[in-house]
Amino acid sequence: MTTIIAKRALTQDSLIGGAMEKPREESQILEDLAALATSPGYAHAVAHICHRDNVIHIQGKLKPSDMDRLFSKERLNRAELTTVIGLMAKKPLDLSLQQPDVLDGYVKRTDTLMHELHEAMSYPMFAAMFEAVKAGTAPPDPWRGPGMREPIFYGTESAYAFQYRDLLPEKYGADDEWMLKTKGFTSSQARTIAKTMCALMDEKGTRRLCCTNPRADALTPTPDGLMPRHPPARSAAGRSD
Asked: What pTM was computed for the model?
């Protein structure tokens, strides 16, 4: 319930004050997300969102306040990012470079659709609460039925990133034969690739490397514009080991 209250901030007064507007169906929102996720060069937008919502750049000693943005209701959590990446993987990966305004549009549209999806997933429980308050009856049990979908999807993650990675062979090893035949790799190979990628990102983030190619700079937008050239700083993106 904590995540619901924090992200929706819905009070009894607002329930009594008027009817809730029903959002679009989840299937419609996911259809729009799927179309967006298979847009040319969308992978670069996903990379930007991952960096925006998961990497902390610090100078000097890490402070608790440096971690605050990781608890912002504006960022996408792991379940949301996994949903977007899964939709993107439904078609061949398109890594074509796009102009900054195109990538910025992808990012903004992703945020909008994920917010809309959250509204749609929250609606059944809040609509039931609204009807109960309106009728003067006891509210429904929030821990049963459709009301549980929102806190499960948006709740605290059940494991650290390295645990998801390192337990991959144990969890999916029995499917290796099928994965190798249909996807071309095994769970152990996927784990090795993921660990290598994490190590590389840690190395680059720690060294705070910035683009030196003008064209690459122009195609790497941030919320405030093009990639800034900061003085050297350390990255606290979460170690790979």
From this structure: 0.66
